[in-house]
Amino acid sequence: MSNVINYNNLSRILLNLDDSIALVSDFQNWNEFEDRMIIKLKNVANKLGIKTTIFIPTISETDYGIWNKKNIVNLANEHKIDQVIFYINRITNNKEEKQYIYENIKNMLSIKNILISDNFKLDKSYYYDTDFFVNFWKENCIVFDNFLNKANPLNLYNLLKTSNFLDFKKITKLDYQFSGRVVEGKKLGRKIGFPTANIVTQELLPIDNGVFICEVFIEAINESYLGAGCYWNNELKQKVFEVNIINFNKDIYGWLIDIKILKKIRDEVKVNSLDQLKELLKSDVDYCKNYINRKEET
Q1: Full-model pTM
Q2: Phi, psi (deg, nearest 5) at residue 245
Q3: Using one digit for the tens of pLDDT, what is the confidence trace for 140-152?
Q4: CATH number of 3-149, picked from 3.30.1490.20, 1.20.1260.10, 3.40.50.620, 3.10.105.10
Q5: Which of 30-34, 129-133, 290-294 is the least confident region?
Q6: Hey, what CATH class is 178-297 in?
Q7: Helix axes 95-103, 130-137, angle to 10 degrees
Q8: Does this chain's domain 3-149 share its CATH topology with 178-297?
Q9: What does the pLDDT look like over 222-242, one tens digit per residue?
Q10: Alpha helices of the chain — where are they, by DSSP H?
Q11: Residue 72: its H or E element
């Protein structure tokens, strides 16, 4: 099993990890390109006699690619990677801050070598690009392959956008899921007996608007629940995923949850009264329960 580390560089905590070589790539959209890079990673690590690390710089706990943290870890386990590091930080175009980030990664996390592709750049990772790692790790940075050669996983995105979650799982062997922290909403659902956990997504999820059967994992209590979730645009024009967690009725504002989407129930429907909304939500919850019961019987 891969050792999983969520590290905030502001903590400045020395973790006393074994020396490792870290692969930096677009793991939220992991495909055959990362598989090839991992083969190279293992070969180099074996020659150097050090551990293998997958290094994911991030500025958010919410995942907007195909894979969330859980699925990235699942894939890392399949490839027998020693450790996965999610590095939370906002880096700016500041020479002194870049120097600090370099020393933090190298010394606090014991990442002595880097493997990265040429022309690597993710918009939301700011300056964690090929030039950053080459300039600071110098001869200890290996540039292999070219990020421009990475195929865009349009087929997988199309399956998610068209709610074809079964075929997505057949191809990838994993369910689509994303993570986020619960924020406070208008509590309209609570008033009519269907409280919801709300996640405001700062970027678009790769799914269409609508209502879905979900499995909700609440990390703080290590429990999973069935849920009926809706992805929609609220009155503030924010993209929101709100889910009624079935047989669960606790305040979890600020808690991190993972939402696994199993099936789309329906498109959005305009309602004209609270009574109509209540009936609609009851129908959605009943559909979710019946769907799971049928699956358990087969």
Answers
A1: 0.86
A2: -85, 110
A3: 999 999 999 998 8
A4: 3.40.50.620
A5: 290-294
A6: mainly beta
A7: 70
A8: no
A9: 999 999 999 998 888 889 999
A10: 32-48, 69-78, 95-103, 130-137, 154-161, 165-172, 188-191, 274-297
A11: helix 69-78
